[in-house]
Amino acid sequence: MTDPRKNVSWSLIVSGTALIFGLDLFLGQGEDLSLFDQVERRIPGGAVLGLGLAIYHLRPWKPLAPFIASLFCWLTAGALTGRLIGLAFIGFDSEKQWMWVAIEAVGVVASGVFLRKRPRVN
Length: 122
What we know:
Mean pLDDT: 87
Number of helices: 6
Largest sheet: none
Structural class: mainly alpha
Shape: flat
Strand content: under 5%
Oligomer: single chain
Low-confidence stretches: none
Order of helices and strands: HHHHHH
């Protein structure tokens, strides 16, 4: 028997990945947008991807701090993925986007370190 939570998570992961990579098919090229905005368009797809990853790696609600840290980590990792793929599509030219990459990477690492120190309770 299949786990419905895993099915939902895989659906979100595939949908998020399709939104990140296939955005130009859905919304057009967006040549009138700045480089920054062209990258920003892919972040909602990354958030869907991150939500799917968070559901796939769901932690128990109690204690609340590791649950929130895990959710933050996976959502930020998804947004970071969307941002990096968006940067790849524009040729890695937006300096302001690289600042956001650094901020998001620090957030993922910090939440990962926090979760590493907390044993997983099932």
